[in-house]
Amino acid sequence: MSLHTSIRNSVDYNIWVTEQLVNWLSNYPEELLQKECPSSFSSIAKTLKHISDTQLYWSSMIRETPIPGFDYMAPDVDVKIEMANLLNEAKVLATYVKDNNEAMSERRLIESEWFSSNFPKYEYLQHLIIHTTYHRGQIVTIGHHTGVSKAPMMDYNFWNVMNQQNK
Length: 167
Description:
Blueprint: H1 3-25, H2 30-34, H3 44-63, H4 79-99, E1 107-111, E2 116-120, H5 121-146, H6 156-165
C-alpha cells in the first residue's frame, strides 16, 4: 500500500468512525453522557470535548491554519456541539488531505509549550487517528459504568474489511 492510499484510508476511516461514535451516543439522553465516572476525563461529554478540541488542534497544524483557543476548564460541555464539531472537522481534514496529498510529506515545525517537533504532516495525521482511538476506548469504558452500552464496532480493520467488500 502506498503512503497516499494509507493517508486517504486514514481520513476516510476517521469520518466513518466519528459517524459511528456520534450515531451511537445520539441514542442516549444527555444526562447519561454528562454522568461522572473516574477516568482521565470524568464523563463521556468531557472526553468528547477533549477529542474534538484535540482533533481541531492537529487538523489546524496539518492544514496550517490558526489554532483556535480552547477552554479546557469549561464546566459545561454541549454534547451536540462537540459531536457536530467532531464530524465537521473530520470532513474538513479529509478534504484538505485529499486535495493536498503531496503536502502531507512536507515537514511541519511545531513549537508549543508542551513539545517541539518537526515531522512530516502525515505523522501528525497518524497521531490524530491514534489519539482519538485511545479516547474512543475511554468513552466505551465510561459508558459501561454510566449506562451507555452497546457500542458499535469501531475498529479500523472492521472498516477496512467492509470498505474492501464494497469496492
